[in-house]
Amino acid sequence: MLRRTMAEFDIKAGLLHVLKRIDEVILLRSKEIQASRPLLVAVSKTKPAEAIIEAYQAGQRDFGENYVQELVEKSQHPDIVAQCPGIKWHFIGHLQNNKINKILSLPNLHMIQTVDSEKLATRLDAAWSKLKPASEPPLRVLVQINTSGEEAKSGIGTKKAPQLYQFITNNLKHLQLMGIMTIGAFGFDYSIGPNPDFVSLMQVHRSICEANSLSPESVLVSMGMSNDYDRAIEMGSTMVRVGSSIFGHRAVKA
Q: For the residues 57-68, what does the mean pLDDT come to?
């Protein structure tokens, strides 16, 4: 099954296609957008170790996982450990309190993108201080914001997000708050205008920067997935999470 999947999809070509598209959008982006070049996080949930290794060998370093157990298995997979020493894992799923110690103990954990409450942030801060020596850098995190208002989605509301941002910055020294993220509603029709989720997140971004005297470039914005990452970059995204456009890229038939 794995051989057929690897032959059917051309992961390197998919990765190069996404990187090329990112470069194209940056050139077309409004000069008013003060944003750095977006970081590409390859979403590898449900994908086998072979696919991750192939993407890594093609130059990709940042990978996102949605489920704790899957990240546990992949981060300790002997082939990935041996062949991907510089891999950076981003956790992009809902994190339950009882899974905190398990995920923070994993090798090459780079960032938790889904902090959405003072309670979760405080527990992450306390756990990191206990698990890691004082010389270890703080844990990188993003505040997840529910811009669509969908009850099924995690994330703090847009009005409360700046307050959570300040709480983490002022009180939790074992966390390095890097920015904000959203998932947003799926399947937006761009023929009717800009995505309101992206508009909303950029408004929160502006509020946070103004309230904390921060430059826009210093606060990461993680928004945009396979179906709309180019639109997100146009709006100011500095981190995109792309899965199917990389791992589901069809190999060109001879």
A: 98
Consecutive H or E run containing 123: helix 118-131
Residues 146 and 154 sit within 8 Å (Cβ to Cβ): yes
DSSP three-state, residue 49? helix
Tell me which residue of 67, 76, 119, 71 sits closest to 94, measured CA to CA. Answer: 67
With contact defined as beta carbons under 8 Å apart, do 174 and 125 qualify? yes
The continuous run of DSSP H or E covering 102 comes out as: helix 100-104
- DSSP code, position 150: -
Look up residue 75 and give its two tokens.
Answer: 């981060």
Q: What is the distance of C-alpha 8 from the center of its chain? A: 26
CA-based max dimension of the chain: 59
pLDDT of residue 7: 55
CA 66 vs. chain centroid, Å, equals 10
How far is it, in rounded angstroms, from Cα 122 to Cα 42?
28
Q: Count Cα neighbours of 192 within 13 Å in the Cβ-side half-sphere.
A: 5
Q: Tell me: the pLDDT tens digits for 224-254?
A: 999 999 999 999 999 999 999 999 865 554 4
The stretch 161-181 carries a mean pLDDT of 97
